[in-house]
Amino acid sequence: MKMPILVARLIAVTCITPFSFIGVSAELTKPNIIIMQPDDLAFFDTWGAPPNNPNTPQRPVNLPSVGLPNIERLRTGGLQMMQAYAASPMCGTSRYSTLTSKYASRSALNRVRAGFNNEDRAQVIIPQTKLEDVNGMNDCSEDNIAATFQQNGYQTAMMGKWHLSNIDDESYTYDSAVQTVQGCGFTHVKGLYVQNMVKDEESFNNYSDGSFSHNMEWITYEAVEFIKASDEPFFLYFNPTVPHQSNSVSSALRDFSCQDTAAGKLGFDPIIEGMTGGYSGCEEYRQTIFDRGNTEMDYGAIWLDDSVGALLTALEMKGAFENTIFLFQGDHGMDEKASLYEGGIRIPQFIHYPAKYAAGTKFDAPVSTIDVGATMLDFAGITPGYPMDGISWMDATDDAELELYFKNDRCLFFEQERDRAARCGCDKYLNIYEQLPRGSTTYRRGGRGGYSIDLYNLFDMCGGETNYVTEMSTNMEEVSLNLASLAPEKATLLSEVLQCHIDRTNWRYDPDFSVCNVAISTGSPASSPTTASSPTTASSPMSSSTTPTTNERDVPNMSNTISRDLFQKSFFTLIIVVLIND
Fold first, then answer.
1. pTM above 0.85?
2. Helix or strand or coil: residue 98?
3. Are 377 and 456 in a shared domain?
4. Could you tell me the residue range of the domain that residue 282 belongs to?
5. Contact 110, 128 (CB under 8 A)
6. 374, 399, 424 — which closes off a domain?
7. Pairing state of beta strands 188-193 and 155-161?
8. What is the rounded (10 degree) CA torsion for 500, 503, 506, 508?
9. 389 and 428 housed in the same domain
10. Would residue 121 count as lying in a domain?
11. How many domains, the chain?
12. Do 368 and 413 share a domain, yes or no?
């Protein structure tokens, strides 16, 4: 007889608590962890990209002709997430969710500014989504995974693009910027680009004065030196600036040397095994990038790939290769960047960890950047000291029943400006806040790309089947496929789920980390959150917690995998789970 499986129906909305740590025994040797998040990298077709926009259905996005062998080594040599998402489709907002495991609307600065302006929804944009300590909310000093790793004996380092602090241009110095980033949980900060570089002389400022550009040799050298010198375990957050076009990659390779850095002249050409090693210097090495590529996109991707190779070589030489988790992900989609369509929020995500994942492992269920921190802490056997939106997929990647929960029952949410979206199983609901090009990048880009741009949109991302559609010419969000008026009951339920998320992240209420899901229930949607005494006063991290219970859950039975007290809250509503013998 087959084991019972969980069958979820779109009947009612319930709010549950994230099972952020669903069962792991701490390893005797904690893993090293590298999170690499390049800037504006294309989602190549061979990586399982989402469909093209409706107006250019056959447009290919191909790897360079020479391939990207080192990134492919990560992808094919470990775990590939087939449905990974950015919680918010911009550089800084995506990085916030990665480092905190929280939705960007929860950032302290967002809550303060939304309260100051008396907004009904926080404006999720880069200037307001920072790791800042504001009014008792400690996104920088406490509530992020770097600080948590640091507090638990990890050496922590950050190299590359930051984009998560408000640093005054007039008072900027490289050293003061390093100190700011160090205050957010990083012991070692080198090769720092505090924000995007400016494009031209008219925009030069104290941070970007035209004396440097992209420099993959510099940041890779600093990362390799950190790996070589580190006592295990370590956490490295590595953010290449390429292939972002704030500065031309080809100009950076041709018009600048690898000694030109944001910290001043380096004074030597870095020799990096797996990258510049074997060449007379950086100039000779950089010429090989032009020799191997044909386009601007090629040059950035190849330069990036060489950097991945150098990091893998450093791990092998140190003897740390088997026990290092190397998570590689995009920061957002590029087809519809800054929008909440699939081309803006779907990202490539690969996890290379020889100690756990065999080559060719795949996980075909939705996951998000909010899950990265929760999962990496789970691998390290660390319980965070603050609440998270993300949950760990560590056990789910080799448990078919848990994978079904991620695939069918869990809801993910997406935020950009004041627009919001939810995906629950095959269903996606998009609310465009206002149909104004200046107020909504989703509306503006959707109109240009042939997408549905109604205020309320319901899409079937599986096209009437059970599996997510990825064929490049079969876009499920085009203007003719809005199902909101054809399936009003389902649209109403999904809108209630989305409203649950909007309420739980609203600045007017005490922070509430209950999860909004669609599940079988005899109750109605959960009541509104408790109104905060002040719009800018944060509750203590666990203030909204209730005593953990063993109520029936809308997740598979995991009693055999629990190895420590990891649940933080109980259900808000009793869920009646229907189990059917299949």
1. yes
2. helix
3. no
4. 26-102+139-399
5. yes
6. 399
7. parallel
8. -160
9. no
10. no
11. 2
12. no
Task: List the beta strands (DSSP E) in 292-426.
Answer: 324-329, 349-352, 361-368, 411-416, 419-424
Six token digits for residue 379: 């691998």
Residue 440 belongs to a domain with what CATH number? Answer: 3.30.1120.10
* 349 and 325, same domain (yes or no): yes
Structural domain contains residue 179: yes
35, 574 contact by CB (below 8 A): no
* pLDDT digits 0-9 by tens, 91-148: 999 999 999 999 999 999 999 999 999 999 999 999 999 999 999 999 999 999 999 9
In this structure, are 199 and 61 located in the same domain? yes
> Of 351, 375, 399, which one is at a domain's C-terminal end?
399
CB of 406 within 8 A of CB of 430? no
* Residue at 430 is within a domain: yes
- Dihedral of the CA atoms 409, 377, 414, 364 (nearest 10)? -50
Same domain, 463 and 561: yes
Residues contacting residue 575 through CB under 8 Å, at least 6 positions apart = 14, 16, 519, 520, 521, 551, 552, 553, 554
CB 180 within 8 A of CB 167: yes
A 10 A CB-CB count for 422 gives 26
| Helical pair 370-380 and 91-100, crossing angle rounded to 10 deg | 30
Do 423 and 559 fall into the same domain? Answer: yes
The DSSP code for 277 is T
Residue whose entry in the numeric block shows the structure tokens 């029943």: 401
Q: Which residues contact 105 (CB under 8 A, 6 or more apart)?
A: 121, 122, 124, 415, 505
Domain shared by 305 and 357, yes or no: yes
CA-to-CA distance for 468 and 541, rounded, in angstroms? Answer: 36
CB 421 within 8 A of CB 446: no
Q: List CB contacts of 428: < 8 A, sequence separation 6 or more.
A: 421, 422, 458, 459, 460, 461, 476, 477
pLDDT digits (tens, 9 = 90+) for 345-354: 999 999 999 9
Neighbours of 171 (CB within 10 A): 8
Q: For residue 417, is it within any domain?
A: yes
**Angle in degrees, 0-180, between the axes of helices 282-292 and 296-318, rounded to the nearest 10:** 120
